[in-house]
Amino acid sequence: MNRQHRTVRRAVVALAAAALLGTAGTLPAAAAAHCPAPAVISGHAPTLVPETAVWDQAHHRFLVGSMRHGTVSTVALDGTVRTLIDDPDTLIEIAGLRIDQAHRRILVTNLDNGIGERTSPATLGRVAGIAAYDLDTGRRLYYTDLAAVAGDGGSHLANDIAVAPDGTAYVTDSFAPVVYRVDPDGTGSVLLRDDRLTPAPGAYGLNGIAYRDGRLVLGKWDDGTLWQLPLWDPAGLRRVEIADGGALLHLDGIFARPDGTIAGVTNAFYGAGRDAEVELRSDDHWRTARLTAVRPSTDPTPTAVTTGPAGALYQLSGGLADANAGHPGDTFTLRRV
Hints:
By secondary structure, the chain is mainly beta. The strands form 6 sheets. A 5-stranded mixed sheet has the order 8-11-12-13-14. It has 4 helices and 26 strands. Helices cover 10% and strands 44% of the residues. The chain starts with a helix and ends with a strand.
């Protein structure tokens, strides 16, 4: 009888433990909030080359998009990597990745920059798309061909995404002076086309994008300029005045922080610029801004910055420069800054 009681008790304990960990093997939010933020997370996956990362608070994990494989993977705090989304009929390379909290889904940009395994002469430099996937299952919900939305037959490269609270997405195009709007149902349109955002010959133009109080803040990689786009009046696009604007040369991913600042990374991709994490603050709704921090990067060619556990800020270095040189690596780093 005692043995039966112990057996039942062990079963109850096991069920309780399983409930605590959850079906996806993740911690519930209340417990996860008390987990420490590791100083460095070292990931290993064959030639993954992640260009972007986001923190998935619901599952207490990072999500990274692969430039090499066109997949989305989960990254645990111990660096364990698992594929969540593999959609070879749709995705070539992934640059932008965001979570649409309003609809519990993952949004990714699709592009062909010549690094991915699925690159082809027909798609190289001509792909701009956005896809939505279920946050829990990885099931595709929609795909929108933004190059077709642009309708100009020119070069296109969908880069980064910002998401408004209602789930409306905004996407930058690095090869055209275009910002796209994508409604929650996947309907795409051109929000803005402005020649001032045209990239320099052979370079990337628009890159990072952040939503801030009804405005978009846009970063331009080739010249390090920052732009403010009011959503109620897209024609009111204006350049943000920054005292030390030169520090933003090769500004890549940017991230809107809860305290009102914008964090970002610059990189020395193609030689110019420097590998660093930068932080900006504005007191006039991004008409002007000031640099509040410039921190040299320990890791080469950082491409994204994101929040992490306990609200910590992390910088991603995924080996993009090596991959572009034809030598994709198997490791990447998420480092707390």
